[in-house]
Amino acid sequence: MLKKYSFGFDFLGLSLFVLVMIPNFIWFAVPAPNDILRTDSLTPIIDVIGSISQVIFIAAMCMLVKKDVEKIRFSKLIIAALIMVVLYFTGWILYYCDFVNSAVIILLTIPPCTAFILYTVDRKNFIAVIPGVIFTICHIIYGAVNFI
């Protein structure tokens, strides 16, 4: 299976990651009015597993390239990934407008993970999908237990 992959650089994968991280960088610098996200986590073990799988996932998404994959195009999966990014940004806008509820937490949790997974499936990078799914599960548990 590994013979179908090569080490390379997926610029668009890195671009997607940076795009999704922009609201997080803003949040680190400028706290929201009712910033419930700045609390101690009730799920430290899940958080560690999630962080490790996130690093592995992003590294695999950006540095493993499937040899027989087509050039990037606006496929249904890529369009769906972009819609997920828009939903995620909408969640951050609502969060900063002091709309803090379960729906907003879901917008901050599920769409970014879904965008990454949709992108890796489109790129046929199934090695990256595995840690991506683990990260997604941990991210959902973290959001649900700590904020919903």
Give a quick rundown of the structure.
By secondary structure, the chain is mainly alpha-helical. The chain has helices at residues 11-29, 44-63, 76-96, 102-122, 126-147, and strands at 5-7, 64-66. The chain is globular and about 50 Å long.
Q: Note the main sheet.
A: 2 strands, antiparallel
Compressed to H and E, one letter per element, the order equals EHHEHHH
| Helical proportion, percent range | 55-70%
Q: What's the mean pLDDT score?
A: 94
Share of β-strand residues: under 5%
N- and C-termini, Cα separation? 40 Å
* Structural category: mainly alpha
Strand order of the largest sheet: 1-2
Low-confidence stretches: none
Radius of gyration computed on alpha carbons? 16 Å
Number of helices: 5
Shape: globular
* β-strand number: 2
